[in-house]
Design goal:
Elements: E1 2-15, E2 18-30, E3 33-37, H1 44-52, E4 59-64, E5 67-68, E6 79-82, H2 94-104, H3 109-122, H4 138-151, E7 156-160, H5 168-185, E8 189-193, H6 196-202, E9 205-210, E10 213-218, H7 220-225, H8 230-235, E11 240-250, E12 253-258, E13 261-266, E14 274-279, E15 285-287, E16 297-302, E17 304-309, E18 313-318, E19 326-331, E20 344-349, E21 354-357
Parallel strand pairs: 3-8, 3-9, 6-7, 7-8
Antiparallel strand pairs: 1-2, 1-4, 4-5, 9-10, 11-12, 11-14, 12-13, 14-21, 15-20, 16-20, 17-18, 18-19
């Protein structure tokens, strides 16, 4: 990956009185795999369609490789799209589906045949070229749609929830397969999904979207470990959240008064400010009440409410006050004998404690 390749500058889109995309900026490197992650209605599919030229920008500019695509019609952009329903041609066989775009461009037969053979081998469907697409499984149809999009060597490949129609096990397999193919072909790709696990597994970087804006654009590990806003904390992965107020501060650390007692967090908020304390549940441990707490830990007492078995892990939910949320993630084989009528001690490292202004966007 190198340099700025796909550049969106101040792009905006309104449908009647509703602003779907609001002055959005995004820069993607050549060969980078970026996921647009967010809930339904956040604008991620509209943004994808704007890049493809299927929806016009009201404002802003879209460039790929230094070429301004903003007002260029979709058929001249050479942007590949894999739709959620694949949009294969049912009256054509596998080979002719993959060849469709090349033939529409008027490429010579020898070039078409070579490109189709390469793409079918790439998606591991060589030998199935003569088969009707209706006779293929869902995973095979997804591969055909990908091969068709790759055959024209697009400037950018756009994927719109293209794994969502597959069953869980096949979807997990195709995540790795798709990443392998794009790395081999060195294709710049934008992938739209509302599945956070999918985005974290597949992407070089993730853009978390909310209400037509990007709340955070970073590596998957950074998005998960250091969410930039309360929305990202809540949307990406499980999280504990506790409301409180800054009681005191010293240098970069502050003491936050909460319904469960004082908690320590890094932050530069002022005394008296309302804040939200967050922590990932895998960082929360159950401790014996008689054990002395480590000085670098936050410790609270809470009443267990609902243990949930999830195979390799067990999630323990705790009773909370108001909008607070408390949970701890334990190994699945660890069976706690806790009494749900008695509070237990929870602790986590101060360095893993996140703090946000309560009135922050999102």
């Amino acid at each position: 990956m190198s340099g700025a390749y796909l550049v969106l500058s101040g792009v905006a889109k309104r449908f009647r009185d509703h602003a779907v995309i609001q002055g959005l900026d995004l820069t993607v490197a050549k060969g980078e795999f970026v996921s647009l992650l967010g809930p339904s209605g956040c604008g991620k599919t509209t943004l994808l369609r704007m890049i493809a030229g299927l929806v016009a920008c009201d404002e802003g500019r879209i460039e790929v490789g230094g070429v301004d695509l903003t007002r260029m019609p979709a058929h001249r952009r050479n942007v590949g799209v894999v739709f959620q329903n694949y949009a294969l041609f049912p009256h054509l066989n596998v080979r002719d589906n993959v060849a469709f775009g090349l033939r529409a461009q008027g490429k010579p037969t020898s070039e078409v045949d070579a490109a189709v053979a390469h793409c079918l081998e790439l998606v591991r469907l060589d030998g199935l070229g003569a088969r009707p697409v209706g006779a293929l499984s869902g995973g095979q149809q997804q591969r055909v749609a990908l091969a068709r999009a790759l055959a024209t060597r697009p400037r950018v490949l756009l994927l719109d929830e293209s794994l969502s129609a597959l069953d869980r096990k096949l979807r997990d397999t195709m995540r790795i397969e798709l990443r392998r193919i794009l790395r081999i072909e060195q294709i710049t790709a934008i992938f739209v999904t509302h599945d956070q696990e999918e985005a974290l597994v597949m992407s070089d970087r993730v853009a978390v979207m909310n209400a037509g804006r990007i709340e955070q654009f970073d590596r998957p590990d950074a998005v998960y470990a250091r969410p930039a806003t309360p929305f990202v904390l809540d949307f990406v992965g499980q999280s504990c959240s506790i409301e409180g107020r800054v009681a005191s501060r010293r240098d970069r650390q502050m003491a936050v008064e909460t319904p469960y007692g004082a908690l320590i967090a890094d932050g530069d908020f002022q005394v008296g400010e309302s804040v939200l304390i967050g922590v990932r549940p895998e960082n929360v441990r159950l401790v014996d009440g008689a054990m002395p707490s480590h000085a670098a830990d936050n410790v609270i007492r809470a009443l267990p409410a609902d243990p949930v078995f999830l195979g390799s892990r067990r999630m323990i939910h705790f009773q909370c006050k108001g909008a607070d949320r408390l949970l701890a993630e334990l190994p699945g084989e660890e069976r706690s004998a806790m009494d749900t009528d008695q509070p237990v001690s929870l602790c986590w490292p101060v360095e893993r404690t996140l703090a946000y202004r309560r009135d922050a966007p999102g």
